[in-house]
């Protein structure tokens, strides 16, 4: 297991370099002018007799177990971004009592919003936790992580383990050896990545992406307003659903072409973008978790990588032909997923400031509990003896021109499109969502 680093903090003297994902997100944070764009806030309303000391014990056990939650980052000699970890005893849980306020809920949510969107100083902290008391039997638990260590998978791991630890803490049990020992830690992850790069193990993967994306054009999206010259993140979200019957039919369509539902839905998005832009050369980004081994699945840290799925089928291509291309490109992309996106971009010809990925497609079939925390479908985490309710944050941020996320439920698919309000109106995005459903219905109806 990796050891905590030493830089004004307790622990060993190991100072491993940041991973590629963390370097990318650290650099992005420096460019966002304190917007909080890369903050990942989640909150749970806790109704019932909360055992506060037990919850604090459970949180401390989590922080002790996952050094990434105590991370700090700074630039060392030679300009390399380095990682360190605070001692768990130094991590504060912000406790506030709003029960005597005229409107406890409003006061608590205002405090939570400040926790959620205040910019992070990554040299000091990557996680904030607040426990807010509204009444004797009403509390709000707020966890705000920076994306440099927090992704959807990490959120799910955190709450799954918190459920176990709190249940035992209320019984007075010892927590130090409750969960399986982590045999693979942050230092292992960092050194594995560095070895892969320095020993040329990713050369073939990087060459694949260079050859595949070297001449990929930018998308000419028909926006409702001019693109701002400065950085903007203000966003809107349009939610919509896809029925269980249509989902079942789309699954059959994919199966007949040896394609997954993910591939079929992604091809539908490519089809929509071809219709909307008039282009036949389309690149769409999608995310992979980076959890390629059981040891990595247990870690709380950001291992997300972006894959660029490009289609170039001629204008007259049928959906089946486009699906065959997207299927092949997706399989190849996942076979080359270890190449960090920033290393890929660095090896491409100069794009003149044009981003490689302007639109994203996400298929969420394993982290619906995380979607529920953000106000979507799914089950929220539960703490023993309490009724838990998600407390979504009203504010949204947009990192791309369009982000289409689709998740599975027993009643079909739930979907949302997040978009910058500077570029697209709600009316345009609603029409875009309906056009996407029309594409899928057309595919399902075809013989």
Number of discrete domains: 2
Q: CATH superfamily membership of the largest domain, which one?
A: Nonribosomal peptide synthetase, condensation domain
Beta strand %: 15-25%
Top CATH class of the largest domain? Alpha Beta
Instruction: Give the N-to-C terminal Cα separation.
Output: 55 Å
Order of secondary-structure elements? HEHEEEHEEHHHEHHEHEHHEHEEEH
What structural class do the secondary elements suggest?
alpha+beta
How is the largest sheet built, in terms of strand order? 4-5-6-1-11
Shape: globular
Second rung of CATH, namely the architecture of the largest domain: 2-Layer Sandwich
Overview of the molecule:
- The protein is α+β, with helices and mostly antiparallel strands and 447 residues long.
- The protein folds into two domains: 173 residues, Chloramphenicol Acetyltransferase, CATH 3.30.559.10; 216 residues, Nonribosomal peptide synthetase, condensation domain (Chloramphenicol Acetyltransferase), CATH 3.30.559.
- Helix content is 37%, strand content 21%.
- It is built from 13 helices and 13 strands.
- It has a five-stranded mixed sheet, covered by helices on one side. A four-stranded mixed sheet has the order 7-13-12-10. Strands 2-3 form a two-stranded antiparallel ribbon.
- Strand 2 and strand 3 form a beta hairpin.
- Helix 7 crosses helix 13.
- It is globular.
